[in-house]
Amino acid sequence: MDGNGRWARGRNRPHSFGHRAGVRAIKRVMYGCEELGIEVLSVYAFSTENWTRPRAEVRALMRLFHETLEREFDEIHSRGIRIVVSGRRQELSQRMRERIDDAERKTADNPNGTLNVCLNYGGRAELVDAVRALIEAGVSAQDVDEKALAARLYQPELPDVDLIIRTAGESRMSNFMLWRATYAELFVTDTLWPDFDVPDLERAISDYQGRVRRFGGRPEGGAALELSS
Q1: What positions carry a catalytic annotation?
Q2: Domain locations in the chain?
Q3: Is the pLDDT of residue 223 over 50?
Q4: E runs forming strands in the chain
Q5: CB count, 10 Å around CB of 223?
Q6: 229 compared with 57, residue with greater pLDDT
Q7: Cβ within 8 Å of residue 20, ≥6 positions away
Q8: Which of 26, 106, 151, 194 has the maximal Cβ count within 10 Å?
Q9: Model confidence pLDDT, tens digit, residues 89-132
Q10: Which SS3 state, helix, strand or coil, does residue 227 take?
Q11: Is residue 155 within 8 Å of residue 86, measured between CB atoms?
């Protein structure tokens, strides 16, 4: 969800103005995914690296997340959308943790798709925490495999990522879903996140549907690439 700051600067407004506009974009896209039958939407709300931002901006972001969850919860719940949060919760405030736990508990059985909010999340941190969980569970080295590690990710029931949409022209992974995004397709748009809307989402999905996903293999009859000097 890149471009909140640039969007705000272009209007001579503070970053917080852009972040609030970004929340409105999340709402549009979330309900667009519901209408399109997309089962899981993951949004990268706050990374483990974002703590290095100015303290006032971090406080504003945390306050915005809590306010948004309070304000939008009833509508999200009434539409049957499940809420989960991925990330290092122990580093969040007790008030925030309690609000997250309450939202997850109340929406646990909702059938109309999942909103996965990545909050204080990092792909490397998730893998480190999964390894720690293996060690704490006493899993022996010979029993460690992909299935055992995947079962200890933050939300182990979620499927692998099919499509990553990067806004504002950014084309890097940014430490996002490193395990689940192994074979994800990447769609890059110059649109800033606060301007991103359902037609942009539909274009990204249409582009994705036109691709041939090989998952490290090659379609039958496909040609091999040869390099020679």
Answers
A1: 2, 50
A2: 4-209
A3: no
A4: 40-47, 82-86, 114-121, 163-166, 185-188
A5: 7
A6: 57
A7: 64
A8: 194
A9: 999 999 999 999 999 999 999 999 999 999 999 999 999 999 99
A10: coil
A11: yes
